[in-house]
Amino acid sequence: MPIRKISFLLAVFVLTVLVIPKGFSQDTKLDSLYAALSKDFSPAQDSLLYQKLILDIDALTSDTIAGRYFQKFAHLRDGNGLWDTITKTMLLKAYERYDAFGDPCKTVIAQFSLTRVTLFQGPLEETLSRAKKGLELAKTCGELKHIAHAQSYLGAAYINLGRYKTALEYLITSEKNYEQLQDESGIAMVNLDKAIVYDELNDDVKAGECTKKAAMIYKAQPDKQLNYGIALIDLTTTYLKLKQYDSIKKYLPIAHKIVEGKHQMAMSYVYQNYGTLYFDLGNYDTAIDYYNKAIALNKSIDNTSLNVTLYGFLSEIYIKKQQPDTAYEYALKADSIAQAMDNTSLKLANLPNLAEASYAKKLYTESHEALKTYIHLYDSIKGVERVKEISALEEAYEAEKRENVIQLQQQENALLQEKNRASNNRNWAFGILALLIALVAYLLIHRFRLKNQQQRVQMKIRELENANLNKEINYKNRELTSKVLQIAQKNELLEELKSNLDTLKRTTGHSREVNQLYNKLQIEKQIDENWDSFLQQFTEINPKFYEELDQRHEGLTKNDFRLAALVKMNVNSKDIASILNISPEGVKKARYRLRKKLHLNSDDNLEQYLMML
Predict the structure, then answer these.
(1) CA–CA distance from 605 to each of 192, 554, 575 (Å)?
(2) 106: domain range?
(3) pTM of the model
(4) Same domain for 514 and 558?
(5) Half-sphere exposure for 160 (CA within 13 Å, toward CB)
(6) Per residue in 10-54, pLDDT tens?
């Protein structure tokens, strides 16, 4: 199971500072209640108390005062890790009162609060919608600090949607604005979100650098120690992925001491990371204790995505402990929550656990279905990513094409203006007989220059047409390269799945069931279909390659043609091995045999030779 991070929580503390003015007091009764609740806050406080509180604040006639009180009490709850319906209701009412007042600089802060809640609760579409509205309000307000904050929220919203490159663009812009404002807290908050992006892009080193940068900023601020603790939790999450256990043992106890008794959700993630540390070290019983502590603490805040992760880890542990019934129970719990949330990444992370636990319980059909669903989800995600990549390339190509057309039109207009000026010059020349000879000479020279200019314009047009043609060819080659990489990734997955099935076949004694499962998955057929799809697209771009290669060199096999195509595409040996289903050493031998069949000397370059065909 992937280890989930907590850094989305941090913006709420920045937001609280932005929203609640120091020292404002408009209602003695409400101020006294706030002071009492702050002093002795408990997640188990009676919901009826807050329902009555909402009615009391609603009764206030001033929109700005009511909005401030709604936010003040809402942040008392979410600041203590309660992101529930009561909190969202109070924030929504704060937004409505500020919106009624008509001040965009106040309304945008309330919008940030609602965006923060939807980042935690969902749905994803509402999060993106509120983040976009926040940026719109921030620009209307005109204050750079609000614009920077809105950009950071848009980055977080795109992280939730899996659009990591777009998220990174907004986060980098937000960080530049915070640097201009010299806002250290804002810089730290954005770096935590950047760390999540790099984590999702599997760049653990950059993720660790961003998280550590944020942690050091918070450490230097005495009033940001809780933020410092949460940043350390994220840092230990990254160290878990990097297997840097000494660093985890150094920083996690510090984070534990800071957040204990101050933030329930942060403590849940502390317990999760302790559990994962002991899981990795093979101390399963201690790991189970910590995961159960996290689940118990999470009941009052109901962080559903964290529950999926924790149940997934418990399922893995009980599989290791050879307790398939318990492992299956936890895998089923995780799957049901992921299905209810309709969260693709959580479903994808848990399905292998469900398949393995089902198999351990001898529920072979269910195990088979889980594996099929996993492959389908994996392919669909890769397909969506490829569509997005191709769409971006197409947009860039169309933009360049439009720019070239505009430049061409400008050149044609300039040429037309030159022609008009030449015509006027001739008319004036015929009217002035005394200067006839001089003007005729001038016109001849001018026409000669004009002709040269026309030739240059025509040459430029041909250059632009050739450039556009080259761009189209490059685009198709990039698309084919993307296809090759996709086939390599998919074949690696299929080979890994095949290897796992072979392992199950050798170790479980259920060879008949494994063979049936293998036949149903049709792995070899899928690999062949992947190659056929690539071959069709390669032939469209290089229609005469195979024909010319066959005419020059008789006796080439099907595998020789496949290898020649991949070498011509400049595919590296690792990906060639994945696509052709052979080892890297096998690739070297295949290249050597192909050189012999092509009658190439030791000084001849195989890649250059194939490129010329």
Answers:
(1) 48, 20, 20
(2) 9-21+49-196
(3) 0.50
(4) no
(5) 25
(6) 444 444 444 444 434 456 888 888 888 887 776 656 678 888 888
